[in-house]
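ok so for the tutorial part 2 we go from a plain amino acid sequence to predicted structure tokens. step 1 is just haveing the sequence, like this:
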Amino acid sequence: MPASPQLTLANSDLPDKVIVKLPNATLPGCSGTDVPTIRMWPGAGEIGQWWSGCASGFTPNAPLEARVKLGNGKVTSFTLPETDEHGTTRFQWYGLPENGAGIFSLRLSDAGGRQADVVWRILPASRPHILVFPREIPKDADSEIYLSGFSPIADVKLGVYRIGDDGVAQNVIRFTVNADANGFVGEKFTVADDLEKGVYMLLAQSQPTYRFSGINTTATAVEFFSVDVAIEKKYEFYTLFLGRAPNMLTAVGERSDKIAQLATPSPPPTPVQPASTPVVLPTATFTVTPIPATDTPTVTSVPPTITPVPPTATTTPTATSITPSPTPVSPTPTPTRAVATTKNGVPKLFTLPADGGGRPVCPGTKASQRSICFVPTTFEQGTYMNIMMQGFKAGTRFNLSVKTPGGGLVRFARKANSKGFAEAYWYALNNERLGVYRITVVGGGKKISKAFKITKARSPHIIVQRRDGRAGKPVMISVTGLKPRTRYILARYVGKDRTKGEIAFKLISETAIKTDKNGGARKRFGTKAKDKGILFLTMIFKPGESTPLAKEIYSPGKMLYLRYPYAWGQYQP
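step 2 — the prediction. this is what the tokens look like for a chain of 573 residues:
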């Protein structure tokens, strides 16, 4: 499976050439069943992602009528291509922004009265995604591009790369799109009209940026498509499973005698892409194309396009950090079954993917190269800037000073560890003054001074000062970007650190807090000597709701680097 994209620093611009090396893979198969069944892979997702679907157990060589209730509450109908001689057909579902997030339901039926149902949930985009629809574009046919999960009103640079047989992708077109107030883009993909026959990669560059496994550059999101040729299944496998949870090889779907259990989607669904020339149905905004047998139906959040898809293996993209190289960031998980909550609606247990990321590296350098860097240099109130000092002798002392917009001066010091690395954070708490600061670092024969800027919070944030402080010393938990003079619940959890799999966090406290006129609040919590190395998760909830508005992790006495970078200034959920 492809690994989750790893949050990292961006390259200065889209490169002219990119090396793409992905392992061969195929999509899940679409096997026959005795009774009508709908299956969709992966078992979870969010807006901006897509699903591979399989309908089986229906009348052979017969069309299927589909009725879909979308996440936005609207209902649409369309017709799927005829089943094969075994009563199966494949399709794809795309999670388009206009279809919304929420609970989706799909019912398929044939003229003989056979029918099956599936229900699934599509979450809001937790990170940026791109969808090209259809993924296989016939020459001179119309196509569309959808972006989701980007920063509101952001300018997004896009680069189209033609992939050669040797895996070398050459840039052929660069253009820019503008996200709306929700971070969405939906428009005609007109640049495809000028493309030659071939297979292409589409890279987006905005904020945040990631390292994707198998791709030797940084980007905010990635998509693959083709013009007038079939696209290799390894590319579909990559985007289908990229960043999704390891158990997502399991399909969403049940037999017709009972509705499928609700699955918790990680990434949002995306528009369905036809494997051959799409047929536009008058009854819906869906494009349906016959697809080779597959396993599980897909759900989408925008007008879905259904396309026949040949079976393929599933691959999951791997994220690699760039300068600095933070660990993969996963969206806030949604429980797949009921979870006990307190009277305030706060979950008593909460699970997050383990973050096995290592030490970050300053942009454009090697870990052994003496360097001091600050990432990022513009960040919101309620987040932090990471300060790295690398490649020095063990024990080197660094004196840091920060001049505030009001003329104040804050001084502190750090010492390089046995590997010659030291780090610090500048925490923009809820009452931190907005404006331009200047930081100066002196040590190891170097002196560097740099300006940085703190801006107003545009969304809820929770930050812990210090996230890696000494065990036994108190920490300050600050929330920002909330409604003014409003009551919230601040919850804290404890869990055991690990580098793989998932971590189960157990609730240890919930505290009612009320925000000030600026939508912020803070509270001090103690730690004990025995807490050293323990992971603490803190989240903010609206009373009566079990979905956190923001989260952060801290660990007394443990260097976290940029692991779990939920409050890092460059990370935008």
